[in-house]
Amino acid sequence: MSGFSRLQRDVQPGLIDPGYKSTSLRGPKSPLIRIPHRLGETGGPRFGAGWVGAQDADLTRNGRCNGEPLGERIIVTGRVLDEYGRPVRDRMVEVWQANAAGRYVHKSDQHDAPLDPNFRGSGRCVTDGEGRYRFLTIKPGAYPWRNHPNAWRPNHIHFSLFGQGFASRLVTQMYFPGDPLLQLDPIHNSVPVDARELLIARFDIEATEPEWALAYQFDIVLRGPDATPMEA
Amino acid sequence: MSNRLRQTPSQTLGPFFAYGLTARQYGYDFDQLADGRIARDDTPGLRVRVAGQIFDGAGSPIEDAMVEVWQADADGHYPDAAAFDDHNAFHGFGRCGTGADPACRFVFDTIKPGGHDGQAPHLNVILTMRGLLLHLFTRIYFADEAAANEADPVLALVPQARRDTLIARLVEPGLYRFDIRMQGDDETVFFDV
Prior knowledge:
Chain A is mainly β and 232 residues long. Chain A is 3% helix and 25% strand.
């Protein structure tokens, strides 16, 4: 049995980042201890197609109370691949985000912007045979946070994926092209400069639905089963 | 190596994940894939509760972390894909946020896993939270498995002085305590998986 590819440290953020204040008391300081991959690492939860409801991937519908959510309707789609280019099939993708006004449904979000009674902002879907996922949602708004004076998060959608095993888990955020807040955002900037573009979706005129919604393409690359024999 | 795709970089979970990932636990109107109850009523094995707090570098309990567990069954077998076709099967997977408990605890009700592949019984853990740009891996071993722990090949990679950070304390029969410390002299061991 082979192990999984390892984390590409040249694209990943560090655990303590001077720009992102919360890391200073939460990022561990001792070196991580490298362990070989066994079933506990290469296996993992297999939530597939049977685990999504009919409206789970349509955030414009799955939180409705008495009407349609406000804001710009968008399609967010892409493929989930491993780093060898193989599609990651029948695997869970979970998303959550702020509403069009930049407000989260979460009870502890105190930003003075309106909640939308018809938008919750969370959903899930499962990748198809080509690793493709697709959500319909509302473009999230920017919102302030207290990291530094006049700090604002760029528009973003949170993603959570398992991929093929526990070792391929990924929690990340998708950003939008052309957002002027990106270059000011310590969380986005925690990623090495050459890799930051990997988190920015591509506007995709081909995937838009005329008279209905613009589309963004966000491909995701996960760690996967290595082609070489398991490391000792 | 050069023809490999670049991995998608990790970003923090942020503070507001609950209505997406742990909605039912926090009282939001959305279901969730898994919660702190890993064992079903009919799952064979010794019932155990594993609970603890997560402390930041200043010693404060962390109220916006999410802990995930992946474990073998009582015989040491990990659930396969077929197990997930049945919503009521044992999936060996649990997920618990720390913000729904007044003391910021995570709580898992499960069965003690069997040893596997020469390893002592343990829970594989993924930890993520606001302020972590990359999720962390750790393991929960059991204090009353001293002989198996002594022979465990992963614990053997950990300096002796730090091994105790990976071992849940038996508080009373069926109840284990496992606290996680992000920093400090007794910082929990995290793995490069």
